[in-house]
UniProtKB/TrEMBL annotation:
The active site is at residue 251. It is an enzyme of class 1 (oxidoreductase). PANTHER family: ALPHA-AMINOADIPIC SEMIALDEHYDE DEHYDROGENASE. Residues 1-27 are annotated as: Disordered. PROSITE patterns: ALDEHYDE_DEHYDR_GLU. Homotetramer. Gene3D superfamilies: Aldehyde Dehydrogenase, Chain A, domain 1 (3.40.605.10), Aldehyde Dehydrogenase, Chain A, domain 2 (3.40.309.10). This is aldehyde dehydrogenase (NAD(+)). The keyword Oxidoreductase applies.
């Protein structure tokens, strides 16, 4: 079993001041790698290395930095199958989804390679003669990026690629339980030509990261924080950043609604709900939380949805036909089982031959994995959800989907917004007015029509509002505002001091003129 430490200032470390943690294949229970964890001091050391390297990296012309990003994309593309297989092995994601996740890295690099030639400012007309005004994008400085393990390569790329392109140095803290993936992705980035210290990868647990980040901020070593994870931790990150007058980029949890109108294509809606709710075993921030179905089609939708979930193959993630594989790890399974405690007597359960962990004593009909070695969970549909149910307002992060009924459009909107999250939402309808009215009133930062709540493209803004984030956006040109600061410059060549708002030219008019 390989030991993997942190990568600081261009070198892999072999010390483990924060202890050790074994990563395990959640489908088979076999060890994958052992993480040599950092302590807070090592996190600060990485931030200091980034600070020392950042100015030199920012001096590299932006088109050349874009070329490095392009080379990262080509390296990832050349290693696509191997990287996807590692994702499947270390977190249990089905191979088709793992390949899609790696493709997201490639697409992100392809998009931002060109942005190295498009970090545009503007020339602005002045109110005075012989004076020019300009704006420039400048790097933020050192960015500390903390990401979760459910998308261990795609989501980090959303931060790392634009941050590096814009001339920042990065300290990346991946999920500590994915050391092999973190090692592979770091190697691919560095081998593309990044100078030492520009990208540093620190393996550390949550409390250590918090302590290290606080110390690095106090020392003036971090200028921007990016965080993807739970809403609860995001609140603490926001508080920490606020004490240093910084605005973090926060991409947090979701309780994503999928509204089914009476004119919807029910088979299409079921397909969307199946992938939204149970892809990646429901372990996505964009996973479907509650299907909100019009009373006229509720029973038929539930019948078809139940049949689709019962008929889905669950098990070995290396199979091409599985809907989902294991939970990421035992701790995620335990959290999911706790959320099953939100089921109340007025709810009805559908979707499988049991609930909770799949075992020999609690089997899943048609299961295609090793239940004793892996950490697998039954898919669960919870029908009869009401707007005031705790389950309607809690991110359950696992293979569980609620189903609620509504009569009037206002009820659907109340269910879609009432939980306070605002990440992703979907509506199934054949009537344009329903789609546009839903878009206007839903709180989500991302809206789909006749498509799933999950799915992102590299050139479209990604992010949420409310409990799902602070309004920051990733992907596309919009993320550039997270990793650059606008700088304005005025250049006066009049040869005399011109004072704005005081020495401006006036033009006389005749305000009393009237047409005869």
């Amino acid at each position: 079993m390989r030991e993997i430490g942190s990568f600081v200032d261009g070198k892999w470390r072999d010390d483990s001041p924060g202890g050790r943690l074994e990563s395990t294949d959640p489908a088979r229970g076999m060890p994958v790698a052992e993480a040599l964890l950092a302590d807070a001091d090592l996190f600060v050391e990485a931030c200091r290395a980034a600070r020392e390297a950042q100015r030199g990296w920012a001096a590299v012309p932006a088109p050349v930095r874009g070329r490095v990003i392009e080379q990262i994309g080509r390296l990832v593309e050349a290693n696509k199958d191997a990287l996807a297989a590692l994702v499947t092995r270390e977190i249990g994601k089905p191979v088709a989804e793992s390949l899609g996740e790696v493709q997201e890295v490639i697409d992100t690099c392809t998009f931002f390679a060109g942005e190295g030639r498009r970090l545009y400012g503007q020339t602005v007309p002045s109110e005075m003669p012989d004076k020019q005004l300009f704006t420039f994008r400048v790097p933020v400085g050192v960015t500390a990026i903390v990401t979760a393990g459910n998308f261990p390569v795609a989501v980090p790329s959303w931060y790392l690629v634009p941050a590096l392109l814009c001339g920042n140095a990065v300290v990346w803290k991946p999920a500590e339980y994915t050391p092999a993936i973190a090692h592979a992705l770091t190697e691919l980035f560095v081998r593309a030509g990044l100078p030492a210290g520009v990208l540093n990868t620190v393996l550390a647990d949550g409390p250590t990261t918090s302590d290290g980040l606080a110390a690095a901020l106090d020392a003036g070593l971090v200028d921007k924080i990016g965080f993807t994870g739970s809403s609860a931790v995001g609140v603490r990150i926001g508080e920490l950043a606020g004490r240093h007058l910084q605005t973090p980029c926060l991409e947090l949890g979701g309780k994503n609604p999928l509204v089914v109108m009476p004119d919807a294509d029910l088979d299409l809606a079921v397909d969307g709900a199946l992938f939204s709710g149970f892809g990646t075993a429901g372990q996505r921030c964009t996973s479907l939380g509650t299907a909100i179905v019009h009373a006229a089609v509720h029973d038929e939708f539930l019948r078809r949805f139940d049949a689709a979930v019962r008929g889905a193959v669950i098990g070995d993630p290396t199979r091409s036909d599985v809907l989902y594989g294991p939970m990421i790890s035992a701790r995620f399974l335990e959290a999911f089982e706790r959320h099953l405690g939100l089921v109340r007597p007025h709810h009805a359960l559908h979707g499988s031959t049991g609930t909770g962990r799949i075992t020999a004593a609690n089997p899943r009909e048609g299961f295609a994995g090793d239940a004793e070695a892996g950490v697998y969970a039954h898919p669960t549909i919870v029908a009869g959800v009401r707007v005031d149910d705790e389950i309607a307002n809690t991110e359950t992060f696992g293979p569980m989907v609620g189903v609620a009924a509504f009569e009037e459009f206002d009820e659907a909107v109340e269910l879609a917004n009432g939980h306070g999250y605002g990440l992703s939402a979907s509506i199934y309808t054949s009537t344009p007015v329903h789609a546009f009215r839903f878009r206007e009133r839903v709180s989500a930062g991302m809206v789909s029509v006749n498509n799933s709540t999950s799915g992102a493209e590299a050139h479209l803004p990604f992010g949420g509002n409310g409990r799902s984030g602070n309004g920051s956006r990733q992907s596309g040109v919009w993320v550039l505002d997270q990793f650059t600061r606008w700088q304005s410059m005025n250049w006066d060549y009049a040869g005399t001091l011109q004072k704005a708002q005081m020495d401006t030219q006036t033009v006389a008019g005749d305000p009393d003129f009237r047409l005869p």
